[in-house]
Design a protein that fits this description.
It contains two helices and 14 strands, in the order ββαβαβββββββββββ. Helix content is 5%, strand content 38%. It has two domains: 70 residues, Cysteine proteinases (Cathepsin B, Chain A); 146 residues, Jelly Rolls. With 283 residues, it is mainly β. Belongs to the peptidase C2 family.
Length: 283
């Protein structure tokens, strides 16, 4: 989007304009200063050429600034990442996922409830969609979470759902969904907006889970999650809650205990060795 303030007709006729383009290439502005409007008759061909003005059905058009602020309600500023495989400049790996926050018609907190709300709702937070990332070398990771436009394609405008994203470090052998929230290494702002963004720098080696959420539980809509990283992080959606029973029909675990070793030391006494550990237990 390009805009300028130019003197089109001399010193006293200064009009503030904005230059826009419909990316679909059709359906343009048809008010004042549209392609075929009478206002352009006051502008000479040389002035049009100097401004790069063309009258084609190419999706590009000009609008007076006062019309722009009257009819447009939102502006999104996009950051472009170089994702080309063959490039001499810095490139990023891109992964795109499409998902949904949905209750599936079950009660809050049930296994098929995937609309758990943000971390403030600890009892249902882990019901949200979860994405596993494996970081093999330190680097930066960026997350762009976008929700679907309410009433897309209609004139009705409903408010956006408030959305955000959490990223938490998990065990290096983690393969399944988590059922207890861990301290996030990064959390985006929560906003009632089309998109939110989270930029993590110098992410250490390890495994991480990204959890896109709505602010409140049981809010339902679809989303797109884009992940950009300077090294491959192999993100994937986690669907299983626990390991399968296996070939010999081992019983499913009914509880899980996670032990975090904080420190340990070795003590020798009368030829015997004893190891003492200071740890934390999580159930």
């Amino acid at each position: 989007m390009v805009w300028f303030c130019s003197s089109l007709f001399g010193h006293h006729d200064r009009i503030r304009m904005i230059r826009l383009q419909n990316p679909w290439g059709e359906k343009e502005w048809n008010g004042p200063w549209s392609d075929d409007s009478k206002e352009w008759e006051q502008v000479t061909e040389s002035q049009k050429n100097s401004l790069g003005i063309t009258v084609d059905e190419d999706g590009e058009f000009w609008m007076p600034w006062y019309s722009f602020v009257q009819y447009f309600t939102d502006i999104s500023v996009c950051q472009l990442f170089n994702t080309k495989i063959f490039s001499t400049s810095r490139r990023y790996h891109e992964e795109v996922f499409y998902g949904e926050w949905t209750t599936n018609g079950v009660k809050s907190g049930a296994p098929d409830d995937f609309a758990g709300g943000c971390l403030n709702f600890s009892a249902t937070f882990c019901n949200n969609p979860q994405f596993l990332l494996t970081v093999s070398q330190p680097g930066e990771i960026m997350f762009a979470l976008t929700q679907r436009e309410p009433n897309e394609g209609t004139k009705r405008r409903d408010p956006y759902v408030t959305i955000g994203i959490h990223v938490m470090k998990v065990e290096n052998n983690r393969l399944h969904r988590i059922h207890q929230a861990m301290a996030p290494i990064g959390t985006s702002d929560y906003a009632s907006a089309r998109s939110v963004f989270l930029h993590l720098r110098d992410v250490p080696v390890g495994r991480y889970i990204a959890v896109p959420t709505t602010y409140a539980p049981r809010e339902q809509t679809t989303f797109m999650l884009r992940i950009y990283s300077d090294h491959k992080v192999e993100p994937r959606l986690l669907t299983k809650h626990a390991p399968s029973k296996g070939l010999f029909g081992c019983r499913q675990p009914i509880s899980v205990t996670r032990i975090t070793i904080i420190e340990a030391f070795l003590e020798q006494e009368k030829g015997e060795e004893r190891i003492y550990a200071h740890n934390e237990l999580y159930y």
